[in-house]
Amino acid sequence: MVNILSHKNSIVNRFIAEIRDVDIQKDRMRFRRNLERIGEVAALEISKTMDYEDKEVVTPLGVSVMRVPKEEPILATILRAGLPLHQGLLNYFDHADNAFISAYRRHHKDGSFDIHLQYMSSPSLEGRTLILADPMLATGQSMVLTYKEIMQRGRPKHTHIVAALASVQGVEYVKKHLSKDITLWVGDLDEELTAQSYIVPGLGDAGDLAFGDKM
After folding, report:
1. For 100, what's the count of Cα atoms within 13 Å in the CB-facing half-sphere?
2. 154 Cα distance to chain centroid
3. Which helix (H) or strand (E) holds 39?
4. Which of 84, 134, 140, 153 qualifies as a cystine partner to 32, CB 3.0-4.6 A?
5. Which of 156, 144, 147 is nearest to 97 (CA)?
6. Torsion-angle region of residue 208: left (phi > 0), alpha (psi -120 to 50) or beta?
7. What is the per-residue pLDDT for 149?
8. Are 74 and 129 in contact (CB under 8 A)?
9. What is the pLDDT of residues 74-122, one digit of tens each?
10. Which CATH architecture has domain 2-211?
């Protein structure tokens, strides 16, 4: 299942508009905060799909029975660009366990590139709900490789993939190469992908906009 958050009128559309805007992008703090807020909206939507149970809460005046989540998810992200989006998810799932994976594109002179993974830190995923975040789902290759790598830590009962922006090609690649027990949550969906695998109109390089240029 693919959920496009911008297809429903909500305040998340403003956050997406601002991360796209070339003038507002100059404010790195605001860019990071908007990615974080998109993560918060995604967390709220994902929370509606989870299992709940009754819990008695003692107040100063009595006892209230509240419906609360039965479990805490595992939040995973791809370094470094995924950190603000991850933080937004963590703001709402503040008791969650966390996993981190580093992935990068190694470019070749002919314009092609390979995806390389260098580091992973993760708890056991066995039987857990996994929420895997990366702000840009362009070709989908990084997400598929990351997912397959993190499966070494066990088989989750369900996986949610969160991206601020995605290309149609990236979504189709993920749907083709990953299992059926995955739900995608995408801020907005763009039709075009350049020869260099950048989303158009997209927003540029999310990692550089959030944290500065890299070598």
Report:
1. 12
2. 20
3. helix 28-47
4. 84
5. 156
6. alpha
7. 86
8. yes
9. 999 988 889 999 999 999 999 999 999 887 666 556 655 566 677 888 8
10. 3-Layer(aba) Sandwich (3.40)
Question: In the chain, pLDDT over 70 holds for what percent of residues?
Answer: 93
CA distances from 98 to 6, 80, 117, 121, 150 (A): 27, 15, 18, 8, 12
Residue 52, pLDDT > 90, answer: yes
Q: Assess contact for 39 and 162: CB atoms under 8 A.
A: yes
Per DSSP, the chain holds a count of helices (H) and strands (E) of: 6, 12
Which of 100, 160, 161, 117 has the alpha carbon at shortest distance from 136?
161
Q: What is the pTM of this model?
A: 0.90
First to last CA, the chain: 37
Q: How far apart are CA 8 and CA 31, in angstroms?
A: 22
Mean pLDDT of the chain: 91
Cβ-based neighbours of 40, under 8 Å, separated by 6 or more? 88, 89, 91, 92
Amino acid found at 55: K
pLDDT in tens, 19-32: 999 999 999 999 99
Q: What is the 3-state secondary structure (H, E, C) of 162-210?
A: EEEEEEHHHHHHHHHHCCCCEEEEEEEEECEECCCCCEECCCCCHHHHH
